Amino acid sequence: MNSKKLNLKIAFTLFLAIFLVALAVTVNTGMAQKNAEEVITAEVAGDAEGTTGEAVEEESVPYVEDEYRNFFGIDGRLVVWIISQLHLMFAAFVLAVPLFVVIIEAIGARTNQIKFDNLAREFTKLLSTAFATTAALGGLLAFALYGLYPGFMRYMTGVFHPYMFVYALCFFGEVFFLYAYYYSWDLLKTGTGKWVHIFLGVMLNLFGTALMMLANSWATFMMAPAGIDMKTGAVLDRTAAFCNFLWMPVNIHRIIANVAFGGFVVGAYAAVKFMGAKTEEDKAHYDWMGYIGNFIGLAAFIPLPFAGYYLGREIYSASPVMGNIMMGGAFSWTFIVQAILIGMLFVGGNYYLWNGMGRIKGAERYTPYIKYINIVIFFCFAVWLTPHNLPLSGEERALIGEQYHPFSKFFGVMAAKNAVVNLLILATFFSFLLYRRANKGETMPFKSHGNGARITMIITVGLTVMYLLWYSAGLKGQDLNETIKPFINPLLTCIKIQIGALIAALILTFANRGKLAQTLLFVVTVSISVIYFWYYGFVVMEKANMILRFLSVTQVSIVISTLIVNTVIDVFLFKNAKEVGGIQWGKIPHRAQYALLLLCVAIVTLMGLMGFIRSGLRMNWHIYGFMQDKSAGAFTPSIAYMGWVVSLIVFLFLALVAVVFWLATLGDKTKKHA
Amino acid sequence: MSKKKNSYSMMMVIVSVLIVFAIIKVIAPYVFMILLAKDHTMPTPSTLLLWYMILAILACLVYVSTSDLKWANFLSFILPAGDDKLKLLFQKMIVISIPLLVGWFVYSGTVPGTASPVELRIQHPTLLQEFEKLENPFAHADEATKRKCIEEGKHLYQQNCRPCHGSKADGNGPFANAFRLRPINFTDPGTIATVVENFAFWRIKEGGPGLPAVSTPWDSAMPAWKDVLTDTQIWKIIMGEYVTAGVQARQREEMEH
């Protein structure tokens, strides 16, 4: 007991120390800017005095609205940065949790398993307290923006004011459906009432998503303005300003990222509860909850790089210069930090699954594969974080004798990164398949699952094949220069091979050779999307740069088709299969729980970092190419300064979340004691 | 009662890490020398070596802690060896090597040296605003005019750029060896093929002296050509340079939505 208290004290002291140091560094910088501003103001005032004399002080000076203000001496940009990021993190949690809560509740209602319903309810309990914090931070953000950036906000309000009323309406909708959903749980728990309750949850999601999309439009307008005269700022087309070029890519990326974020945060909540649980029952419950959190987090995290790539590509399309700043310029080193965090998420997610296999009887048949998956994942991690430009000493530069070391030349460019991220995703998916089948023994023949299984398989393969055919038709129809058009042909051939593999996998599954079908798909996809496209990426980079963007999408399409078809095969392959032994929930080492905590910290940091990058890409523009940021804080922060601020945000968020979760569970303790 | 077999997983981890170290530090420089037909080895940069070794150690620790049994086996190596002489030998080696390693780190970290500091470098310095919206004046010209410009550009390139960047734009001009950091090889798809033409225009016009502070300390020896060449000549050089190098500039995409 004493040692527990001591640990808590040490943890709190460490937290306080880091918090204070981060605060000191960030506030210092803010104050320095304020001082600089004051010096400039004083100089200007001095000049003015020289011309007009002291009489000016006596006269009533007409009101002139400031363009910029600071927050009690702290730079406005720093204040807005911290508040907006905290608001975004809470909003991500509040928007993501209902997405999977409704799915979990629906699974519970469909399968009549009360544990799913209880889990959904426990997640929702966290939601209701987090929602109030999100709203409070949102209000604070609005005050900060209008108070510190009045000139800029005046213009934004002028462009978007009709949508701001829609935003308020959606907010009311979300509040209504959230509390209706939460408080009607007991009232609508059986029969048709349950499905009415689920409907309330769906409505909550619709309003939440609409809110997010409305706010996204304002942020993306600042990056890729549309519908305005770029010289005068006159609003020409409000709808175009709202549906700007980067709006949909950011919407898609944020929805998926929010789900990953929500999953890992509730996973960490479960880990903390697991480690503090006193009874076997509680341990089993929170172990299961942690598993679900990790599953949701990983399931959303797997398609996230694809959505990220799409967003990145669209940023290049909106402005190649902004794209260059992002990947090869001032922000390139932040992407190395991003690579480390993404690598940590993949390693942490897999590590949790591997440790979880220890509580499944029968998993020992698959544990020998772990070492190979581990090697693949760390190899990919190494390539993923290798920068194109290495930090080198003068001596090293002289010894290498050229701009790029071969490691950075072959690992540091997109052709390599795309290949390894696809391999990382496939390896993690493979890990999950092993985990899924760990306690499964003898399988049932495919035909025993009836016509429903056959139809599902045919539809799944049919849809993926149709998508690939549709994409290859689009590739063929590209209006490209005759010299580079032939470079499309290998992509078309690879798509044809993949379609062949998908059809072969379907036939093999029907012939009760599901495992062989899955192996075939894995082998074909790795050969094409990882090995061949890694090589071909260099060929097109050299000879037909334009093709690289089609190559990446082809690569992603092939990998996704394999993930989808292999999942469906797996579902039927192990449907009604004999169990070797049950899962002993609660029998998982604490190491795995620390992995869940690491995943939470990594995703929160990643969100903080990416928020900085997305916003910082505008450099010294409020609205890129139209309205310049002329405030003292309009500099691009150094990586060290960014690191301190993002760390401070992460600490603040985790501390706030801990308080919010503690408040959410206060009622339970009272009930238990009663 | 059968005797419990000792686990050597800790030794396996140490050996694995040493093998990775040997591959990166010793073997890779020779492999790259042969593969890239160089006349000298390509030593692995210290930063990269450090990163890769951290990952190798982390990978080993992750693997040995994926189950309670593996973790217990890993840690059991520090328990008394009993009759196992081989284990005893390895334990002694570990005990001796730890202070030696610490000593080596302390020595190499404190011994006075003249090594230059490791420097970060940004691949593409931020393009200045006045260059961002520029467009090649010949971008929409007819094919005959473009061909003429390319030929003129090639000629101008050979006159002005060849001494450093080479006649084939491969960074092997007659002066190239005089630079400690060789001129850029434009045929490398990771160089001018990754930027828009405006970027190349800015670099030629302003050269090393025009680089923003963030791009230093990797000072470029590229001269500023703004006082020697006209803007039109620079655009023509860019057109000729890309063709000579056999690569294409990054293209702007059509915004479809």
From TrEMBL, chain B:
Domain of life of the source: Bacteria
Residue stretches making up the Cytochrome c domain: 148-245
A UniProt-annotated Pfam family: Cytochrome_CBB3
A GO MF term: metal ion binding
Transmembrane segments: 12-37, 49-67, 88-107
Keywords: Heme, Iron, Membrane, Metal-binding, Transmembrane, Transmembrane helix
Protein name as catalogued: Cytochrome c domain-containing protein
